Amino acid sequence: MWRKNFILDLLFPKFCLGCQKEGDYLCEDCKATLEVSSFHQKYSTGNLADLYFAVSYQKPLIKNLIQKFKYQPFVKELAKTLSSLIIDHFQLMEKLPDFSEFFLIPIPLEKKKLKQRGFNQTEEIAKELLRFLNIQILSNVLIKIKETLPQVELNDEERKENIKGAFCCRDREKVRGRKILLIDDVYTTGSTLEEAAKVLREAGAKEVLGIVVARG
Length: 216
Ligand SMILES: [Zn+2]
Hints:
Oligomer: single chain
Largest sheet: 5 strands, parallel
Bound molecules: zinc ion
Strand order of the largest sheet: 1-7-6-2-3
Helix content: 25-40%
Radius of gyration: 17 Å
CATH topology: Rossmann fold
Number of strands: 7
């Protein structure tokens, strides 16, 4: 396996998106400038009982990393880089939060977008996290049933309206009485995570927390 990766790296070398140094998408020096948070402060928005985030979304480098992941040419491998920030955040905390009773649910994409991109970026982050947290993922339980506009182009009120009714819980049995960790890439106004948490709570989830790479 290493041999294949070795050849791939020779053919398609990776460059740091911060300083263009060859090796990886984010070198250790540039990673340090992102200042991964070492503490957690409880943050609730109603249905979302708490939120964990690794870095601030203000830094141009993190915006660049997330945009390369979400928009063309869709660098799927950035899932590893971005989830490593979340893992670093947990490891820097004085005490690792106990997520042993939780199940991961990635924020879904609508079918059309999934087809276009070829992968769901939040699912790729979730796959990296489940190995570290040693918990299970619930795939295809929360689905996106409404096409929405990109949230970045909208104001607070428009975001809420845009995302309203966008999600549906397809399998209430899998959610009922369970604790859920919702995974998304960025948290800005929080309307996406709050709407998804509302749907899961209505489906019987006991508690819903959010984990994101960056918070605006
Ligand atoms: Zn760098």
